[in-house]
Amino acid sequence: MAGGVRSDYRGVLTYFVQAGKEGPIKIGRSKNPVKRMKTIQADSWLDCFLLGLSTEREKYLHERFKQHHIRGEWFSPSNEILEYISSLEPIEDALKRIS
Q1: Which of 58, 53, 55 shows the shortest CA–CA distance to 75?
Q2: Which of 50, 77, 81, 86 has the smallest set of CB atoms within 10 Å of its CB?
Q3: Among candidates 55, 58, 51, 59, which has minimal Cα distance to 11?
Q4: Rounded to two decimals, what is the model's pTM?
Q5: Which of 63, 52, 44, 71 has its CA nearest to residue 14?
């Protein structure tokens, strides 16, 4: 829904990064999610995994998943969030849009 309430794609993607294999999921946004992923990984003592990229607004997704909110941009890895991530286009395709 480009240009609507839910989407604000202007070269910025909302990313989903998981700390550890079953840990919390960070929902953030970046014009360069690969670089941002490297920064998140450098700051974490756990291995981090880029699970998905979306053109939906970060704020909309935070509101949508607020019942799973832990703190800041971190959310519990609920089935609802994981199902949303699995519905996204492949990461490689999303990255082509910004490269």
Answers
A1: 58
A2: 86
A3: 55
A4: 0.85
A5: 52
